[in-house]
Design goal:
It is a single chain. The chain is of the alpha/beta class. The chain contains 16 helices and 19 strands. The strands form four sheets. Strands 1, 2, 3, 4, 12, 13, 14, 17, 18 and 19 form a ten-stranded mixed beta sheet that branches. The protein has a four-stranded antiparallel beta sheet with strand order 5-11-8-7. A hairpin with a 4-residue loop joins strand 7 and strand 8. Helix 10 packs antiparallel against helix 11. The longest helix is centred in the middle third of the chain and has 23 residues. It is globular and about 70 Å long.
């Protein structure tokens, strides 16, 4: 089957000299691969929705590609698993082993975007967990979480009255921006959101944006202060916001609101909407670049994961005997709505790709299910994720279970490149109809020692992870 997608053509390529990291020769293939990650995606939700006609963009590839269970490995933490997916190596080798070692500086081996850059393939990477700080590659990188300092004053936001904006006990990010926030809040109807509001925090020399939702006659939800100033560098090239403002957008938010307040009474009123807001900002930026002439394009959409943690209990209330029936009824569609929204965003990305053929890959780092603790009222990770490969030469079928480390050999194969002997993952046999037998693996893509750091992430990153709901306590630091 040919995948010809009509979209916006003629977007300018980024300037700059060709970038070659290693001594490998340029591949003579011109296969293009688009990877769309759905963090937390599970067939248990997707397949019934495809059958009901609710996910049209995923359905067109599901019916014509090979799909199956993508088996994750412990620990099923997003930075760890995505690092395994995109290195083909297990955590003991790649070095991203837990939340304390979850930055790109902790990775000890090359990721696939470095392998393809070695072969002079144009590579774009957007929002992949554990890619901050952004790396120099032959293309573009926009970092995924966790990041240090991407918010000011916490990343969950807060509920306040307008009078409280002037209270000395109120957090400084709100007090110092009362003159900007109050005029946007006053005219809001109950249930309405403000536009993005530009804010400042002089003590940190930080500029940012916030949003406001009116919850009732007196109270308002004020989002986190998301930094957008030049000191927060989340891209390669580092000046991408200045050189490509029309594609990066007026602002870019690399990390959405935390879900650690999921049990509070008013959280469901605003959290879902705001998670969608941030996801749309991220997808719009990826869409702005996907029309370029790339060889490998990777974008991980994290909306499903961020919604499934706090809203899964409403989706599966029978697993939680103490669930409030009224809340379960009100928010029962939040998880499915996250998949509907993700499918819409996928359609926007596909529309912008252009008219050339490409291989399309969908991956999740893990699945989801109800927490084993019935009192916790959250969804938790399951090892059963998803994979889907589609494109020229791939026959529609249900494939065997494969492991997360098999993704890198699969993508390399679709690109026409060899795997390596020190990569743990194996090429799925269901793809052999594409190019025939795989090329003999090279010894290694590693050219220089890359020790990677073992020091825990800094305090600012840890605080953001705590606000997101992923960690408790303080990280243990080495001397």
């Amino acid at each position: 089957m040919q995948f010809v997608v009509r979209g916006l053509l003629g977007l300018a390529l980024l300037g700059g000299a060709a970038y070659v990291m290693g001594d490998f020769s340029t591949s003579d293939s011109r296969n293009r691969v688009l990877v769309f990650g759905i963090d937390g995606g599970t067939w248990a939700v997707i397949e019934p929705m495809i059958e009901a006609g609710e996910l049209p963009n995923l359905a067109r590839f599901y019916n014509d590609g090979v799909h199956g269970e993508f088996r994750s490995r412990p620990p099923a933490l997003s930075p760890v698993v995505w690092s395994t997916i995109f290195t083909g190596r297990l955590p003991g080798d790649h070095g991203v082993k837990d939340w304390k070692t979850s930055h790109s500086t902790h990775r000890k081996v090359k990721a696939i975007w470095e392998m393809t850059s070695d072969r002079s393939l144009k590579t774009y990477v957007f929002n992949v967990p554990s890619t901050w700080p952004a790396q120099e590659i032959n293309g573009v990188m926009v970092s995924g979480f966790p990041l240090s300092g991407s918010t000011v004053g916490g990343n969950t936001g807060g509920v306040l009255t307008l009078d409280a904006l002037d209270d000395r006990t109120t957090a400084a990010v709100y007090r110092l921006n009362a003159l900007a926030l109050r005029p946007q809040a006053v005219p809001l109807e109950v249930g309405a959101w403000s536009p993005w509001v530009k804010v400042k925090f002089p003590a940190r020399k930080a500029a940012g944006v916030m949003k406001i939702k009116r919850l009732d006659d007196d109270s308002y939800y004020f989002s986190p202060f998301y930094r957008i100033d030049d000191e927060l560098v989340v891209t390669y090239p580092s000046d991408l916001r200045k050189t490509q403002p029309e594609r990066m957008g007026e602002f870019y938010i690399p990390e959405g609101p935390g879900w650690s307040l999921h049990a509070e009474a008013d959280t469901p009123e605003y959290l879902y909407d705001h998670l969608v807001d941030v996801s749309r900002v991220q997808t719009a930026t990826a869409r702005g670049f996907v029309g370029d002439d790339w060889d490998l394009f990777i974008y991980v959409n994290t909306l499903v994961d961020r919604v499934s943690h706090p809203y899964w209990a409403y989706f599966q209330p029978q697993a939680f005997p103490e669930m409030d029936a009224r809340k379960a009824a009100k928010y029962s569609e939040a998880v499915r709505n996250a998949y509907r929204e993700t499918d819409r965003q996928l359609g926007q990305v596909l529309e912008a790709v252009g008219s050339e053929d490409f291989y399309f890959v969908v991956l999740s780092d893990h699945g989801f299910g109800a927490s084993n603790n019935a009192k916790s009222m959250i969804g938790t990770h399951r090892f059963e994720g998803i994979y889907l490969f589609a494109g020229p030469g791939i026959l529609g079928s249900e494939g065997p279970r494969i492991n997360i480390e098999d993704a890198t050999p699969a993508i390399l194969y679709l690109l026409g490149l060899e795997s390596a002997q020190d990569i743990a993952g194996k090429l799925p046999e269901s793809l052999l109809s594409v190019h025939g037998p795989a090329r003999e693996p090279i010894a290694s893509y590693e050219t220089l020692a890359k020790p990677g750091s073992d020091l825990p992430v800094d305090a600012a990153t840890w605080e953001q992870l705590r606000g997101l709901g992923y960690v408790d306590g303080a990280p243990r630091r080495k001397d």
